[in-house]
Every structure is written in C-alpha cells, then in structure tokens.
Specification:
Its EC number is 1.1.1.49. It comes from Phaeodactylum tricornutum (strain CCAP 1055/1). Catalyzes the rate-limiting step of the oxidative pentose-phosphate pathway, which represents a route for the dissimilation of carbohydrates besides glycolysis. Keywords: Carbohydrate metabolism, Glucose metabolism, NADP, Oxidoreductase. By secondary structure, the chain is α/β, with parallel strands linked by helices. It contains 13 helices and 16 strands. About 35% of the residues lie in helices and about 20% in strands. Helix 6 (about 160-175) packs antiparallel against helix 12 (about 420-440). The protein is globular and about 75 Å long. The protein has 2 domains: about 20-155, NAD(P)-binding Rossmann-like Domain (Rossmann fold, 3-Layer(aba) Sandwich); about 185-400 and about 420-465, Dihydrodipicolinate Reductase, domain 2 (2-Layer Sandwich). It has helices spanning about 30-45, 65-75, 80-90, 100-110, 130-140, 160-175, 190-200, 205, 230-255, 265-275, 400-410, 420-440, 455-465; strands at about 1-5, 20-25, 55-60, 90-95, 120, 150-155, 180-185, 215-225, 290-295, 310-315, 330-335, 340-350, 355-365, 370-375, 385-390, 445. The structure holds NADPH dihydro-nicotinamide-adenine-dinucleotide phosphate and 6-O-phosphono-beta-D-glucopyranose (BG6).
C-alpha cells in the first residue's frame, strides 16, 4: 500500500548566505570539478541560492583561457536551459598556474574582488592537500576583515590513523581553524540521510523502537553496479574499506545509532556522532568477509597484477552502549555487483511468515522508506501476510548531495561536514584491520561481475545475524 508520495521543491529554501562571495576551485581542470563541483554551483545559481555577487575562479596547472575552460565545462553542465548555463559560465573564470608566483597573481586577483568572503574548494589529489593548503595560507589574503574564509576539503582524509593525524596536525599548524574547514562526505548531503534526523526527531513512536529491545539487527548495504573502471589506480591503493566504509557507511551508522541531541546544532550533532564512534570496537578479522570481482585486475590503471585489494566487504560491528548492546550492525559494500542500491535496514525482533518487521531507508537509486507489517490476507483468509507501507519520493525535485553541501558552506552550517575528532575516531576503528589484512596478505574471495557478491556471502550474513536477502514484500495485496 502506497501511503504517501512527496513533492517539494528546494528552491523555496531561504538563503541566508552573505551577499557576496568569491569561490576559488583549486584543481578546476579535474574530474571532480567538472562532474560535481561546477554542476552543483550551477544548480545553486539557477535556484538563485548563490549570493547576488558571486565570482568563481578556477585554478589548476593545465593551460587554458577563460574561454577554453568554459568550453571544457559546458558538456558537464546538463541543463535544458542553455541561456542559464551561459549566464552561469560568464561568472566562471580560470587561471592556470602552479608556481608560488602564480599563486601570488591569483591572490592579487582575489584581493581585487568585490567580496570579502572567500570559499576555497580543494579539488586536488589528496597527496597535494597539505601543500595546497599551506600555499593558500601563505599567499592568499586569508584574514579578511568583516568576511569569512572557508576551505572545502574532499576525501580521502588520510589513509589510516597515522596519516590522518599528520594531515590534521599539518592543517592545524598552518593555523586553519576547525570552523573554517568543511570536510565533505557527500553521503551526508543525500536526501534520505538528511531525513534520518527528521524521522527520528519528529516521530516519537519510532524513537521508542529505536533500541536493542526492539531492533534485532541493522544492515547497511551499499551496492554499486559498476566496477572501478578508470579509477583503478586510485582505488587499488585504497580499497573498499577506505573508499566507502571508513567514511560513508560509518557516517550512516552513527546517524542511526546516536542519541538524538536535544538541539540539532552542528556541535551537538557532531558530539553525538563522536560518542557513538567511540563505542565501536576495532574490527575483528573473524567479523569480515572480503571479495574481489573477477576482471578487476584487468583494469589497465592497476599496476599490481597480483593485487589483493578488496572491492567488496561485509563487516559486522557493534555499538557498545546501553541502547545497542548485542545488536549486530552489519556493513556491506561492493563494486561491480548486480544492482545499484543503498539502504539502511532495521530489522525488528520477532519474525512472522519468514518476513521480519523492518524499517528500510533507501538512499538510492530512488529515496524511499519502507515499513513492513503483517496484515490480514484480504478476502476470506485470516492468515497474516507481510505487506509494505511506503513513502515514495518519486520524482520529487531533490538537490544533488554536492549542491546541498555547498549551500551549507555558503551559509556557514557545519553539521553536515566531518569534524576532526570524528575523522580520527573513524580511522581508529578500521586501521587495525587494514594493517592486519595487509600484513597477512589476506586474499579476497572472488565473485562474478554482476553477482550479489562472493559465494560465501549468504552464509556469512547469517552467521553475523543479518538477513541475507531482504526485499520489500508486495505493496498491493
Ligand atoms: P584529478 O586527478 O582529476 O585531479 C584534480 C585536479 O588536481 C586536476 O585539475 C589537476 O589539474 C590537479 N592536480 C593534479 N596533480 C596535481 C599536483 N601534483 N599539484 C597540483 N595540482 C594537481 O582528481 P579528481 O578530480 O578525480 O579528484 C579530486 C579530489 O576529489 C581527490 O582528492 C579525490 O580523491 C576526491 N574525490 C573525487 C571524486 C570523483 O568522483 N572524481 C569523488 C570523491 C572524492 P592540473 O593537472 O591541471 O593541475
Ligand atoms: C565515492 C567513492 O566517495 O563514493 C566511489 O570514492 C563511489 O568509489 C562513490 O563510487 C559512491 O557515491 P554515490 O553517491 O554514487 O553512491
């Protein structure tokens, strides 16, 4: 039974950003900038959510003119209204450079800008973060009066506890303040993820079921139907744990497990998440299943032909507090699987007709909420049958995660960004298992492209207390 279908428009959001801003995209010639950053800026521009005086500068080593850069960006700005795209492109400028002198010229340009507010978006490879941040701090006018300077950073933030600590220390030594730093985890900008808090805050009946007495297990699953195609070079050095688990999946887990703060201000929210991260033990090898899809090594960008980097993992963990004691949290993610699907499944205690009562928050492909319940079979039968109640977001106009997060940067809202202590706590959970798998050279289980994962998956999921093949029961009876 479909009980609700939502339609709303994000244009109605009130923009309380300052009146003007200059945006500097460092690494503007790259993949992220053209596929995510600039399209997100266009969406804000189109919805009149950018400050009225906005100038965007792109900076990278590749030689391009303003015109050449706009030409390079245009194919990625998918909007039916070409006129809006052209207007947007007219505020996008580009300057090539890499030397200290080039940065100084960039600084002079920014100084001449009418705005005292500067947002710097670092869309460069992680190995040049620290260096770029240092140059920025030295050359650019980063202490404007009556304005703000905010630095947006992309993941990965380190590759283990030690490298993360080094990066945090470096930024700290460069005198970047935590309130200036916006570390993006784009999952925090997804519609359904934002909805977790609203659901929990606005439905007291639901909150009373949100604990170990009612919940038997939590399964957070993130399947991708494509492989590492083209990104194998990056991926092979990081693997699925660093790519998805340490950030996206763990953020989802903390939002589900945290105690709801009385006020949802950034500090309280991030404190509540941190508290949960500190209650998650380091991961045990026995609680992990690793997989690698067949054909992964054929990616020409992967140098090591014998690589044992996992492209799939399933991990059971716990939250050692009163609310969640003995409830398994099972995290599962993989590339080149049979589907693109990301869901948070809370399975309640007590199973009837082989189907548990479940609350499922589907993030993608289409944000949907399912609640399964046992109802009477329609007609003469009194047998109970499992049915789903569903909130379907359908075609509701929803901003892309990057669009929403960038709007938060302009508004100075940090709740949806990852704080330094959260980051460190999350690396501490995974670093021991990363070290162990590397030292022991654990060989992942093979699985076929387009399958549901390694053959051992079902048995493993059962053994860790999860339900291997949950799918929503029929909506129409
Ligand atoms: P790219 O490899 O495309 O590089 C981004 C930019 O950085 C390029 O414009 C390049 O420009 C510049 N660059 C590269 N090497 C250097 C260097 N040594 N010194 C200075 N500039 C350099 O990366 P992506 O755009 O894919 O990713 C950017 C960041 O975003 C990375 O941290 C990545 O991990 C992260 N990320 C990317 C995602 C994606 O979908 N692409 C998703 C999530 C995170 P030029 O050569 O012109 O200087
Ligand atoms: C990125 C990972 O952070 O998230 C990618 O680096 C992954 O490997 C991507 O494909 C998934 O994001 P989304 O929004 O497509 O689920």
């Amino acid at each position: 039974m479909i009980i609700c279908s939502l339609t709303f428009c994000f244009c109605s959001v009130v923009n309380d950003a300052k009146e003007s801003v200059t945006i500097l995209v460092v690494g503007a010639s790259g993949d992220l900038a053209k596929r995510k950053t600039y399209p997100a800026l266009l969406a804000l521009y189109k919805a009149s959510l950018l400050p009225s005086v906005t100038i965007i500068w792109g900076f990278a080593r590749t030689e391009m003119t303003h015109y050449g850069f706009r030409h390079h960006l245009k194919p990625f700005l998918n909007d039916a209204d070409e006129c809006v795209v052209d207007q947007f492109l007219s505020i996008c400028n580009y300057r090539p450079g890499s030397s200290y002198g080039d940065w100084e010229s960039m600084d002079s340009i920014l100084k001449a800008s009418p705005s005292r507010n500067l947002v710097v978006y670092l869309a460069t490879p992680p190995n040049v973060f620290a260096q770029s941040a240092a140059v920025l701090k030295k050359t650019l006018t980063l202490t404007p009066t009556n304005g703000f300077v905010r630095l947006v950073l992309e993941k990965p933030f380190g590759s283990d506890t030690e490298s993360c600590e080094t990066l945090l220390r470096t930024l700290n030594n460069q005198e970047w303040l935590e309130q200036q730093l916006y570390r993006i985890d784009h999952y925090l900008g997804k519609e359904m993820v934002q909805n977790i808090l609203t659901l929990r805050q606005q439905n007291r009946w639901l909150n009373s079921l949100w604990n170990k007495d009612a919940v038997k297990s939590v399964h957070i699953i993130c399947k991708e139907s494509f492989g590492t195609d083209g990104r194998g070079g990056y991926f092979d050095r990081y693997g699925i744990i660093r790519d998805i688990f340490q950030n996206h999946l763990l953020q989802l887990l903390t939002l589900v497990a945290m105690d709801m703060p009385e006020k949802s201000c950034a500090t309280k929210l991030r404190n509540a998440k941190l508290e949960i991260l500190r209650k998650i033990p380091v991961i045990n090898l026995e609680d992990c299943l690793f997989g690698q899809y067949e054909g992964y090594k054929d990616d020409s960008s992967i140098e090591n032909r014998d690589t044992v980097t996992p492209t799939y993992a399933c991990i059971r963990t716990w939250v050692h507090n009163e609310t969640w004691r003995n409830v398994p949290f099972v995290l599962e993610a993989g590339k080149a699987l049979n589907d693109r699907l990301c869901e948070i499944r809370l399975h309640f205690r007590g199973v009837k007709n082989g189907q548990p009562n479940s609350l499922v928050l589907r993030l993608q492909p289409v944000p949907t909420i399912f609640l399964t319940a046992n109802v009477k079979t329609p007609g003469f039968s009194y047998n109970p049958v499992s049915a789903r109640m569903q909130v379907d977001y359908g075609q509701a106009l929803m901003p892309d995660a990057y669009t929403r997060l960038l709007l938060d940067v302009f508004r100075g809202k940090q709740a949806n960004f990852v704080r330094d202590d959260e980051l460190l706590a999350s690396w501490k959970i995974f670093t021991p298992i990363l070290n162990q798998t590397e030292q022991l050279n654990i060989v992942p289980e093979p699985y076929m492209r387009g399958s549901t994962g390694p053959d051992k998956r079902v048995e493993f999921l059962r053994s860790v207390g999860a339900i291997p093949s949950w799918s929503p029961p029929p909506s129409a009876l």
